[in-house]
Amino acid sequence: MTTGPAHLHHRGTIPRLGRGPLPERPDPATAPGRFGVAGGPDTRLLAGPPRAEGPEHLDRHLDRLGPLQLAGRAPGALRAEVAASGLTGRGGGQFPLARKLAAVATSAGQPLVVVNASEGEPASRKDRTLLTLRPHLVLDGALVAARATGAGAVVVYLHRRHRTASAALEAALAERGPLPVDVQLVDAPPRYVAGESTAVVNYLDGAGALPSRRPHPVATRGVAGRPTLVSNVETVAHLALLARSGAAWFRTAGSAAQPGSNLVTLAGDVAVPGLVAEVVDPIPLGRLLATVGGLDAAPRAVLVGGYEGTWVDGEVAWAMPVERGALSAAGVSLGCGLLAVLGLDHGGLATTARLLAYLAGQTAGQCGPCLLGLPALAHAFASLADPGATRADERRVHQLVAAVDGRGACGHPSGVALLASSALETFHDELRLRRRRHAHPPAVDGFPLPATAGPRP
Ligand code: SF4
């Protein structure tokens, strides 16, 4: 799909984060394995009508999957089924869902389920796509979560400005009529960190949607002190299928270490930025990019897991399996499932500088690393993308990465540090050319940033 200067194309391995090598795949473009887009035969969450038909209505949902039978199913038995499935959170944390369910169900107070649809990653579309196309699957999953925890109420925390998704969910609720639990929709604020679980709970408690250190996990003491399950839309939708088909079926997708299918969003230099695909078997990324991404060869690099994810060299990324377990073993998190492609015509340093400027502006400045460190890091990194960047500029970036990594009340500074440090490793050839005052490829346009982008004044 793209062409570009081969001398800029670093052939390397996963950056320093790697704990082990990724399994080699002989021919990524033709490797076997199931995956697909909405309406495709090799899908689970996205099975059903194609995207062009819009939201799946209740009658079709029931024709396809049958009714959700929860009456008579003991909450403990449901939780045991989830534990046997090995389902982990698909919002980024990859935390075992069964442990959260157990903590919520067994803690004092009236449990609450929060379906987190805020999807703060600017380029991610998977949760919005699920809400838009399969709203009844998400509602079924919320009912399973409520049953498994004993919750009598569900909050869907979403962006009203995503009108198509919001309207699809409201229409689905109207089709359902009375439900066994109260369902309330709450409009989430447009901030990168607003979807972090403590930020969600703080917002529902009437405070700002900002992360905070809490004395207890939200699963045991969350909204108004109630045990609160905060779970991502995709995770919840998996519950709808798991409750129908069981743990053994669930485990026939994914890997033994990370069972189940995964939704991914393609972004950047691909044929259709924002396209959501479902990976059922751990196929090589190259096959996905060749089949639905419009690429015919490895790109310059891929940003894996979100804007606070890991830059991976394009050749390495082409062969790497889209599978949470193998990626985790190599030190890379699939996170929210974002796979943002940097083509050979575009520059990694300039693109990273643009993302860092955005991320530095997405905090409330509550903690030192965000108040001072992230803006300084964004500023220093921008200098690396200028002509004549020096080794001193590079050293300054390394110092700032070390200064913010692991600091603050939430993972935001560490995520920003990961983005910057993986860029330094993956794009070291660009740095060398920069020091020689060579012309430099520009940032890619296809990594969207909301209108609020930019550092705080
Ligand atoms: S580390 Fe940053 S984003 Fe996280 S709570 Fe503190 S100020 Fe907010």
Task: Describe what this molecule looks like in 3D.
With 457 residues, this protein is α/β, with parallel strands linked by helices. It folds into 3 domains: 122 residues, Ubiquitin-like (UB roll) (Roll), CATH 3.10.20; 200 residues, NADH-ubiquinone oxidoreductase 51kDa subunit (Rossmann fold), CATH 3.40.50; 88 residues, de novo design (two linked rop proteins) (Up-down Bundle). The chain contains 16 helices and 10 strands. The protein has a 6-stranded mixed β-sheet with strand order 1-7-6-10-8-9. Strands 4-3-2-5 form a 4-stranded parallel β-sheet, with helices on both faces. β8 and β9 form a beta hairpin. α4 crosses α5 and α12 packs antiparallel against α13. It is globular. The N terminus and C terminus are likely disordered. Iron/sulfur cluster (SF4) binds next to α13 and α15.
